[in-house]
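Hi R.,

As promised on Friday, here is the backbone we talked about, encoded as structure tokens. Could you run it through your design pipeline when you get a chance and send me back a sequence?
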């Protein structure tokens, strides 16, 4: 292609040769080999033996010293690239398939190095095609024509035909053996293993009780005639299996009954070469067939010998053709188009884990041989105990959340907010995708502020003025010198972890997935990468006011990159002034806070009360209001006597880990199956459902987070239960002034509007108080955004 991208077919032989010669290598992304499951591996092997296309690999042509690389299939072994070879092909997509193909259809990994160096012990397995004994094929589909000792026509014409079986059918014929007791036969130098021992193993060992084994790892050498030793061994094994089938047929003909009749019909009467002696066999006595000198025995064995010779040849050629005809395609992109390679990868893997810039940064860092594995660095930074680092920060938080934090840590000796918020996916043993993206953005931003002379990040005024959002782009990140990656990543991890504890304790965030605008996360991490700012109460207070102001003003809802650039520049300028003690008021943040709920396309009272027919409230508003109150902490919604198993507890960001009860979003004025009284009030309400954002009951102001146990008790009980046992104290704290009473539902539409209006007024009041406290100003110095944003309706007060 004209853009430096090539798409063409590559055969298995060519692929293996490129791997052998270290022309195809694995970039040191440190993403482990994951196709360890036998069924996954068998599925790919079955695709090859069914001659199905097995996908596309993506290769990036790179200069050999641009990224750290390793040999495919090995943990740490570096490729042996000749000095005169300046470029190699980095395998971006297809590692799993290529590793499986190389390991199980050839012996190349074993030739290259010791199996202890493999990326996974699962690659030590040996796969075989298990050919069932004839007695086990009498009532099954005979895929390879063993009962007749005549290969099916499509196998005989293997070069141009596809087999008449599916992957589901062939997969049961694939056997995996990883028994160390056969080490000398199947794991050592397979080119020189005693051929008689190998044949005995494949046709008569305990592993072959229900069939015979054809070793698939000989196929690469055999198919391409690159290793005649392997080809001869494979042929001899298949010839012996054919001989075993011949003897099985003769032995079955010596018996009496239905099986003998079946074999005569299938093997002789229905075949051209067998019709002539079918009647003779039928009428022959058992003693004649046992007599090796009898005419019928001689004719029978001569016929079956001819068949077995041809069958063995056909099966050998067929299996070789499966490897020769591997339909594997490669997309090759040159280094100048690396971003296009990422786009191609992501399109090849829609719905799967996408290649991201972090992978390439890992490979860049690996060039520095003295660097610790960068993924291990990140994980180490995250799981490290940060209690001491949080100590001063926690003391400056609200008393209630301090109590919750300390209560949780009573039985903990270590704590990491990033781990608590799910920055590391414990199940997949990898970084959470959203955290990984934030990590890259923070790293690029810190790189912009890197000072070569001091070898550290300095937020100098001139660098602040020159800052642009381009620092988060892939092309910028790929310019980071390898020696700077490790210190920048470590600093970015520190900043992100501190941003996590800030978001947890001051903003009610329980998981990185709950962070509504990821670039807000990045801004906090960049600022908190500086020790003095993280441990400065005024800085943290300013940022708390800025956080809620940014969320509720909608400043990040569109053009997030522009908002990111503008906000970070202005906040850094403000904090530099704070350090110089030359700032009277944080005017920039005050201006943001004054815009709370004043965007008539995002959030005002009319939108939050679901009175605007053109703008529906966004999900972010519901979640953020709930997070705002969760950060304050409050009692759960039901009273202690609601149920024998229920005990009212404090709801906070630590509730789930302390109490083992998840927190769930709950409609304060209830919606759903709550008894006939409620359903009769407004049947249409129930039909509209819980996901209809035009429904007033789904207003962001009608939600709070409660324990899952309380939620279950409410859902399974009539409305009278809810009214009786609902604790109005936490509701009052959140602006539900009258609590939940019978009067609330006598005129539902009117009452819900009034309740939402009162809660909106309380929310605005609470936010205004918080802004004033955190910014060090009086409430009168802030604009009255409640009045500016309130509904024009006159019937709500």
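Update: got your reply. Pasting your designed sequence below so it's all in one thread:
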């Amino acid at each position: 292609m004209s853009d430096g991208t090539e798409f063409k077919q590559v055969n298995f032989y060519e692929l293996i040769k490129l791997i052998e010669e270290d022309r195809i290598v694995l970039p040191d992304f440190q993403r482990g080999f994951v196709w360890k499951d036998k069924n996954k591996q068998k599925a790919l092997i079955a695709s090859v033996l069914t001659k199905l296309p097995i996908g596309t690999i993506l290769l990036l042509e790179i200069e050999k010293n641009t990224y750290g690389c390793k040999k495919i299939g090995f943990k740490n072994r570096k490729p042996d690239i000749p000095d005169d070879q300046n470029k190699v092909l980095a395998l971006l997509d297809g590692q799993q398939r290529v590793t499986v193909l190389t390991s199980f259809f050839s012996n190349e990994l074993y030739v290259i190095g010791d199996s202890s160096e493999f990326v996974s012990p699962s690659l030590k397995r040996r796969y075989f095609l298990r050919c069932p004994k004839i007695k086990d094929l009498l009532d099954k589909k005979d895929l390879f024509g063993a009962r007749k000792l005549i290969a099916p026509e499509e196998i005989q014409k293997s070069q141009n035909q596809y087999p008449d079986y599916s992957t589901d059918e062939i997969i049961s014929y694939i056997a995996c053996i990883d028994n160390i007791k056969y080490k000398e036969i199947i794991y050592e130098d397979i080119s020189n293993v005693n051929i008689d021992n190998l044949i005995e193993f494949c046709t008569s060992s305990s592993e072959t009780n229900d069939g015979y084994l054809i070793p698939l790892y000989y196929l690469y050498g055999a198919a391409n005639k690159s290793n005649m030793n392997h080809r001869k061994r494979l042929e001899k094994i298949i010839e012996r299996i054919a001989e075993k089938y011949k003897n099985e047929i003769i032995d079955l003909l010596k018996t009496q009954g239905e099986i003998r009749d079946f074999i005569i019909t299938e093997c002789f009467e229905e075949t051209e070469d067998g019709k002539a002696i079918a009647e003779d066999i039928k009428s022959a006595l058992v003693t004649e067939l046992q007599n090796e000198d009898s005419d019928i025995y001689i004719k029978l064995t001569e016929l079956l010998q001819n068949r077995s010779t041809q069958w063995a040849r056909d099966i050998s050629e067929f299996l070789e053709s499966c490897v020769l005809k591997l339909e594997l395609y490669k997309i090759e992109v040159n280094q100048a188009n690396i971003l296009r390679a990422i786009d191609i990868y992501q399109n090849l893997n829609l719905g799967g884990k996408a290649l991201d810039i972090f992978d390439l940064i890992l490979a860049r860092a690996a060039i520095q041989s003295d660097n610790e594995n960068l993924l291990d660095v990140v994980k180490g930074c995250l799981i490290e105990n940060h209690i001491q680092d949080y100590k001063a920060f926690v003391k400056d938080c609200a008393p209630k959340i301090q109590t919750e934090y300390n209560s949780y840590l009573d039985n903990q000796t270590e704590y990491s907010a990033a781990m608590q918020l799910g920055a590391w996916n414990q199940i997949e043993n990898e970084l959470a995708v959203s955290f990984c993206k934030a990590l890259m953005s923070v790293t690029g931003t810190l790189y912009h502020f890197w000072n070569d002379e001091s070898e550290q990040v300095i937020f100098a005024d001139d660098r602040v003025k020159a800052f642009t959002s381009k620092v988060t782009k892939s092309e910028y990140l790929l310019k980071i010198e390898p020696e700077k990656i490790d210190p920048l990543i470590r600093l970015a991890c520190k900043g992100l972890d501190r941003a996590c504890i800030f978001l947890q304790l001051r903003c009610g965030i329980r998981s990185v997935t709950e962070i509504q605008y990821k670039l807000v996360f990045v801004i906090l991490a960049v600022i908190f990468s500086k020790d003095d700012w993280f441990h400065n109460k005024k800085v943290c207070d300013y940022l708390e006011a800025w956080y809620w102001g940014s969320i509720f003003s909608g400043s990040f809802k569109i053009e997030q990159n522009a908002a990111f650039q503008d906000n970070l520049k202005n906040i850094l300028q403000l904090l530099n002034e704070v350090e110089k003690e030359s700032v009277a008021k944080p005017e920039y943040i005050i201006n943001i806070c004054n815009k709370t709920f004043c965007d008539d396309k995002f959030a005002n009272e009319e939108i939050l009360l679901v009175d605007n027919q053109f703008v529906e409230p966004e999900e972010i508003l519901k979640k953020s209001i709930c997070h705002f109150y969760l950060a304050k902490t409050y009692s759960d919604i039901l009273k202690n006597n609601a149920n024998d198993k229920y005990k009212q507890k404090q709801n906070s960001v630590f509730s789930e880990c302390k109490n083992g009860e998840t927190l769930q979003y709950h409609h304060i004025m209830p919606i759903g199956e709550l008894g006939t009284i409620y359903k009769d009030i407004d049947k249409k309400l129930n039909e509209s459902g819980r996901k209809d954002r035009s429904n007033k009951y789904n207003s962001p102001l009608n939600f709070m987070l409660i324990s899952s146990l309380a939620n279950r008790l409410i859902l399974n009980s009539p409305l009278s239960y809810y009214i009786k046992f609902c604790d109005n104290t936490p509701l009052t704290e959140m602006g539900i002034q009258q609590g939940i009473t019978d009067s609330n539902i006598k005129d539902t539409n009117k009452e819900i509007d009034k309740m939402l209006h009162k809660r909106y007024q309380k929310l605005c009041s609470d936010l205004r108080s918080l802004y004033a406290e955190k910014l060090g100003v009086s409430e009168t110095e802030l604009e009255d955004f409640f009045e500016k944003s309130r509904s024009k309706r006159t019937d709500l007060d």
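One thing I noticed while checking it: The two ends are 69 Å apart (CA to CA).

Thanks again,
M.
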